[in-house]
Amino acid sequence: MFGWFQRLLPHSSDFFVLFERHAVAVVGAADALAQLTAGQGDRAAHLRAIRDREHDADEVIRETLHEVRRTFLTPFDRGAITSLIGAMDDTIDEMNRSASAIELLEVHEFDPQMKQIGVLVQDASRLISEAAPLLRDVERNGRRLHELTAKLVKLEGEVDILHDTGMRAAFQAQKVKPDPLAFMVAREVYKNLERIADAFEDVANEIDSLVIDHG
Predict the structure, then answer these.
(1) Tell me, what CATH number does 186's domain have?
(2) From residue 44, how far is each of 51, 99, 105, 125, 182 by CA, in Å?
(3) Rounded Cα–Cα distance for residues 71 and 20 (Å)
(4) Mean pLDDT of 137-150
(5) Is 99 a domain residue?
(6) Is residue 6 situated within a structural domain?
(7) CA distance 111 to 154
(8) CA 45/CA 27 separation, integer angstroms
(9) How many domains does the chain have?
(10) Model pTM?
C-alpha cells in the first residue's frame, strides 16, 4: 500500500547534472571555435564539432524543460532554472551562428582581434564549466561563484575592446585599399563574435541572481 502511495508522490530531479552536461557542450563548441578562428586544424571538422555540440546542448535543454514540468521539488525556482539553462544555451547558439557566418561568407583568414576573441570565448567557457558543479551548494560556494561571474563580465569588456579595435583597423584599411565587401564580411564576423561574449555575461548575471537569492 505504501509503495503505491510513494509512486504517486512528486519526485525531484538532478538539474545539476543537466547544467554540467550543458557546460561540457559549451566548452566543446568554444574549443572548436577557438581553433577555427586561429586557423588551426581541419576547418570542416571544427564547423561540424560546433554544430554537433549545439545539438547536444539542445538535447539538454529539452530534458531540462521536461524535468521542470514534471518535478515538484526543485533546487531553485523553476523560472531561475529555465533562465539559467536558457542563458547557457544562448552562448552555444551564438557560437553556432558565428560558425555559420564564417562558413557562409567563406572566411579563411582572421584578424588578430578575431583570434583573440576566440581565445577569450574559450576562457569564458572554462569559467562556466567551473561554475556549474559549484551550483550544487550555492551557499557554500557563493564567494567563488561571484569571483567567476566577475571574470566573465571582465572578459565581455575585453571582447568589446577587441571588437572596436578590429573594426577600427578594418575601416582604416579601406582608406588604403578600398574593399567594401571585405569590410562588410569583417563587420559581420565581429558582430557575431561579440554576441557570444554578451551571452556569457547574461549567464554571469543569472548565476549572480542565484547567489543573491540562495547564498
Answers:
(1) 1.20.58.220
(2) 11, 10, 14, 22, 22
(3) 19
(4) 96
(5) yes
(6) no
(7) 22
(8) 16
(9) 1
(10) 0.91
